[in-house]
Every structure is written in structure tokens, then in C-alpha cells.
Design a protein that fits this description.
Helix content: 10-25%
Radius of gyration: 22 Å
Largest sheet: 6 strands, mixed
Number of strands: 13
Mean pLDDT: 88
Number of domains: 2
CATH topology of the largest domain: Collagenase (Catalytic Domain)
Order of helices and strands: HHHEHEEHHHEEEHHHEEEEEEE
Shape: globular
CATH architecture of the largest domain: 3-Layer(aba) Sandwich
Distance between the termini: 40 Å
CATH class of the largest domain: Alpha Beta
Structural class: alpha/beta
CATH superfamily of the largest domain: Collagenase (Catalytic Domain)
Low-confidence stretches: 1-19
């Protein structure tokens, strides 16, 4: 295992090539370390905590509570109309939240077949995501914050990660102790980071003014502005992995250390979509199954990235249990009091959530209309409940993913999210 100081020296030698990386997390990280070396000490402390937590709590997948992370998506655009250019649509944003929920819960339809040798390593991280329902003042929000970057900052696109961190993040960020901030934006096509698809902060910067994840608008979600081969939302899955303390699977060095025991040793990152097995019996000591190019923390095309491992899931769960624990006390995923008061005291509870068969909606009103939409905003079903008895919604035919339940009484309406998991 390389020391962190050795890694810094390595990074200093290769920074000139990093500008061409798909992920700018490590370059951005070491630029900040150079300015604030105390980040390294915090990193060491977190690694000590993580190793201790894993020794005591590892391999309990399926026995833990599901952790729900509130997300605020900041769309930084250049004055375009919603759904045009970098001002991506609500539906595109919903599609990305759906991907995060599927990928982190191992519900993605392209998950490995049981016959695949790496199937035994594929894990449910037991982490879910919701678009925030409360803003920082406790007022209702849809979890989407649109900001005209041209009007506010005089920029149509951003030269590099440092410029974005300095100019945009401190002035648009919601409390990073309570929200996972995700910024969606465009890099300048002539700048050093023009090929960067995203970058993130590690847990050692939890609560800092730069804390969060940045994703290029044409690699965010699965519809409309996205472009092949980054059109399945896996850039955000990768970067949120960094946010929860995962390293690149090749350890950012030839046969590097990713601090994870159940990922095979790997010589370098992958591009494209390799054929299994790839690089079997490599110089690092891989076996006949070769390298895990389908891991979300590699650089393979989106269509090839399909899994986290159990040890990666442990590291992420440890991050939320330790340095990012303040997210668990956030109320941002709860229906705000103001919304309840303004909805004629419409009181709603959903269970079970996630659901596999029948969703029960407990309510206190009669004459209740309901509509179910998928993550793309497509109406799936609708109906009417004449009395205040529990409403039952059949989810047996719904695909795994995130859905939005719109409920409307005579006084007002309310929206709740639920997840289908079979």
C-alpha cells in the first residue's frame, strides 16, 4: 500500500495527463491538498476509522438499515430554456436519481448473471437517494435548483474544476451536512478539463464549501442530452462512489491499491467495453477471471459498468456511519410541515417502502385522486378513492426503480416517492 505522501508525489508527476481523464476527482483532490495539507491528516483519520468499522461491522449486507441520502441537484446553465442545452429537464434529472437507486441497491437490470464468476462479489450497498423535499428553511422544494450561470457569474461554461469550485460552489451550495449537493454543468470545450465527465469530494472534506459531486450535463441521466457511451447514468454512480470514500479500482497506479479486498488487482483503468475475462493472470497477480472492468469505479463505458462489491459497500456504509453521518439526521427527505399545513391537513404514510407487491397508502381524507409516474415523468396509473380507508396500489407489474405518487384531495395535493424492489 502506498503512503499518501508517495501518492502525492506520483500525482505531481502525472498531473499533465490527468486533464484528459474522464473523472477529475483525484486531480481536484490533490490540488486542494496542495493548498490545505491538513486534509491529508483528516484522510488518515478516516481510513483508521473505516478499517476499524469494517473489522467490527463488515459482511452484514441484508441485515442493515437502508440509508436514505437527500439530494439537491443544482443545474448551472447559460440562460437556456428548461430542457435545452445545459439546462436539462426535470425528467433527465429524475432518470439519474432512478439510476443511483438501482445501481446502489443492485437492482439494475444489467446486473451480472448468476453464472458469472464475479456475481458472488456483486453487492447491494443498502444506500438509497431521494430528491430533497425540504429546502434549508424547511420550505417545500422539488430538489432541483436552477441557476443561470451566465446571468449570475458571467460564464456560459467552465474552464476547469478549480474555477468551478471557487466561483460556483460556495455561492450555490446547500448545507453539505444535510444534503448531497450535485452540480450539473458544462466544461469549456477549449479548457484543460474539456474531457472531464465528473468529479467529487471525499469524506475528509465533509461539510466544506466545495463538498459534493459535479457531473457534466451530457453524462447525467439516461435521456435527452446524454451521449453514448456515457448515456446510462454511470458517471454519477462512479462519482457518488468517490463521495462515499471509494477509490478507482486500479488505485490510480499500475497495480495500485484501492483499499478494497474483494476487487482483483488491476494494472490500469479500462476504456470501452472489454470482453470477459480481461487481462487474466496479469502482472499484479489476478487469477483466471482477470480484472473487474465492470465495476462502477473503473472507466469502462456505461453499458459495461454494473456492480459494486461487498467490500466497497462496506466502505461506503462506513463513510455514512462516520464522517458523513450528519446526512442521516437530515430531514430533507421528509414532507415539510408547511406542505402538510397547506394541504388541508392531508396526512399520508406509505408502506412498505421499498415495495415489491402491494403499496398501502394510509390517509385521513375522502375523495382522494392519485397518479403514479415513473422517473421519466410518464403516467403509469391513476385512480380515485371515495373514502378515507387505506389506498392500495398494485406494484407487481412495475419495474424496479423510483416512482412518484401524486395525491390530490379537495384542499390541495402532495407528492411522495416510493421505490419498487423485487
Amino acid at each position: 500500500m502506498k503512503t499518501l505522501i508517495a501518492l502525492i508525489l506520483t500525482v505531481a508527476c502525472i498531473q499533465s495527463t490527468w486533464a484528459q481523464e474522464k473523472c477529475g476527482t483525484m486531480e481536484s483532490y490533490y490540488n486542494r491538498v496542495a493548498k490545505n495539507p491538513s486534509i491529508l491528516e483528516k484522510h488518515k483519520q478516516i481510513e483508521t476509522f473505516t478499517a476499524d468499522w469494517i473489522r467490527k461491522s463488515a459482511n452484514k449486507s441484508g441485515q442493515r438499515s437502508i440509508l436514505t441520502i437527500p439530494v439537491i441537484v443544482h443545474v448551472i446553465h447559460a440562460g437556456e430554456g428548461v430542457g435545452t442545452g445545459s439546462n436539462i429537464s426535470d425528467a433527465q434529472i429524475y432518470s439519474q436519481i432512478d439510476v443511483l437507486n438501482l445501481d446502489f441497491r443492485r437492482l439494475n437490470e444489467d446486473s451480472l448473471e448468476t453464472s458469472h464468476p464475479f456475481w458472488v462479489n456483486a453487492a447491494d450497498s443498502e444506500i438509497e437517494f431521494c430528491l430533497a423535499m425540504q429546502d434549508e428553511e424547511g420550505e417545500p422544494t422539488d430538489g432541483i435548483d436552477r441557476i443561470d450561470g451566465l446571468d449570475e457569474f458571467g460564464y456560459e461554461s467552465w474552464w476547469d474544476t478549480e474555477e468551478f469550485d471557487t466561483i460556483v460552489k460556495p455561492y450555490t451550495q446547500w448545507d453539505p451536512n444535510s444534503y448531497l449537493n450535485i452540480w450539473v454543468m458544462a466544461f469549456d470545450s477549449t479548457g484543460p478539463d474539456e474531457s472531464t465527465l465528473g468529479y467529487a469530494t471525499f469524506p475528509d472534506e465533509h461539510g466544506a464549501e466545495n463538498d459534493g459531486v459535479v457531473i457534466r450535463y451530457d453524462a447525467f441521466g439516461t435521456i435527452e442530452a446524454v451521449e453514448y457511451p456515457t448515456d446510462l447514468g454511470r458517471t454519477a454512480t462512479h462519482e457518488v462512489g468517490h463521495y462515499f470514500n471509494l477509490s478507482h479500482i486500479w488505485g490510480d497506479d499500475n497495480c495500485g491499491d484501492d483499499f478494497v479486498a474483494d476487487t482483483p488487482p488491476q494494472e490500469d483503468k479500462h476504456d470501452g467495453c472489454p470482453t470477459f475475462p480481461d487481462n487474466d493472470f496479469n502482472s499484479c497477480g489476478s487469477d483466471e477471471n482477470g480484472e473487474m472492468f465492470m465495476n462502477y469505479m473503473d472507466y469502462s463505458d456505461d453499458e459495461c459498468l454494473v456492480m459494486f462489491t461487498f467490500d466497497q459497500a462496506d466502505r461506503m456504509y462506513a463513510a455514512i456511519s462516520g464522517p458523513r453521518a450528519s446526512l442521516l439526521s437530515s430531514t430533507a427527505c421528509q414532507v415539510p410541515t408547511a406542505a402538510i399545513e397547506n394541504s388541508g391537513n392531508l396526512s399520508i404514510s406509505l408502506y412498505p417502502n421499498p415495495v415489491s407487491n402491494m403499496l398501502t397508502v394510509q390517509n385521513n381524507v375522502s375523495d382522494l385522486k392519485f397518479r403514479v409516474y415513473n422517473s421519466l415523468g410518464v403516467l403509469i396509473s391513476e385512480g380515485f378513492q371515495a373514502n378515507d380507508s387505506p389506498l392500495h396500489i398494485d406494484a407487481t407489474e412495475l419495474l424496479n426503480g423510483c416512482y412518484f405518487l401524486h395525491l390530490e384531495s379537495k384542499q390541495n395535493s402532495i407528492v411522495r416517492n416510493f421505490i419498487v424492489n423485487k
